[in-house]
Specification:
The chain is α+β, with helices and mostly antiparallel strands and 256 residues long. 29% of the residues lie in helices and 27% in strands. It has 2 domains: 58 residues, Arc Repressor Mutant, subunit A, CATH 1.10.10; 146 residues, tt1808, chain A (Alpha-Beta Complex). It starts with a helix and ends in a 6-residue tail after the last helix.
Length: 256
């Protein structure tokens, strides 16, 4: 917003880029009052980079890397991926030729997925009954060397040519990733760039730990944050008129 620019204030995403950390780290430090911030309104926070840097000094901001593992230096293709042996408790993706192995989702992750799936599917059934809302495990190929398994995706009725028997071959209209503690930066950095390059129009990131939802949409080929919220906010993306996501519903089992 103009006042923020005039006062040298930046949002959480710009601060994260400047510090080379994830946005969830910025929000975590904000909640814990570990960094200075300016509150412009209800859950609207802005930061002055020089003030944040002064808090950390030369130490910088440290965060743990994700625990997903790069399994081989070989460049993998979709055919290579199909020949991988099953490994209970883990799943694989190929990100630009890089084979990645990570643990299967936990119970909280799946609870959030089921709740969000109901909300999104009900909405799209009303406005585009010929489309399909699908969820993982399902392969989505975005080129010969990229195979991803988004937690949730929506293929519009005019995109049915990308739906094949065993995979989605092309960019869905909407992709949603639910972060887990083992791989937050993969979804925020690598996969965001992959979806952006592939032309996925809408990309949402859900963080159950930080209780946040961010909605990105392509603007001139670059993802822009068009909506977001945390805790018990109701998120309404301007690109999906009438779709309301009450975040309170997503976290209802969080402490169980």
């Amino acid at each position: 917003m103009p006042v923020a620019e005039d006062q040298g204030l930046i949002n959480a995403h710009r601060l994260a880029e400047a510090l080379d950390v994830s946005v969830e780290t910025v929000w975590k430090y904000t909640r814990e009052n570990r960094i200075p911030y300016v509150k412009l309104g209800e859950r609207q926070y802005r930061y002055r980079l020089e003030e944040v840097l002064a808090v950390f000094g030369d130490r910088g901001v440290r965060e743990s890397p994700g625990e997903y593992q790069v399994e081989s230096e070989k460049e993998f293709t979709y055919d290579d991926y199909l020949n991988l042996p099953d490994e209970p408790g883990h799943r694989f993706e190929v990100l630009g030729g890089m084979l990645v192995r990570e643990p299967s989702p936990n119970v909280m992750h799946q609870r959030v997925l089921v709740t969000l799936l109901r909300i999104v599917d009900d909405y799209f059934q009303e406005i585009d009954a010929g489309g399909e809302t699908l969820c993982a495990p399902l392969d989505v190929t975005l080129g010969e060397k990229t195979v991803v398994q988004p937690d949730l995706l929506y293929v519009a009725s005019d995109q049915q040519d990308i739906v094949e028997e065993k995979r989605i071959d092309g960019a869905p209209h909407l992709v949603v990733e639910i972060l887990s503690r083992s791989h937050p930066r993969k979804d925020r950095l690598q996969k965001l760039q992959i979806y952006q390059r592939a032309g996925v129009p809408h990309y949402w990131i859900v963080d159950p730990d930080q209780r946040t939802l961010e909605c990105f949409s392509l603007r001139d080929g670059i993802y822009a944050l068009v909506a977001g919220g945390m805790d018990d906010d109701v998120v309404c993306s301007p690109d999906f008129s009438g779709l309301r996501v009450s975040l309170d519903n997503l976290w209802q089992h969080r402490d169980l």
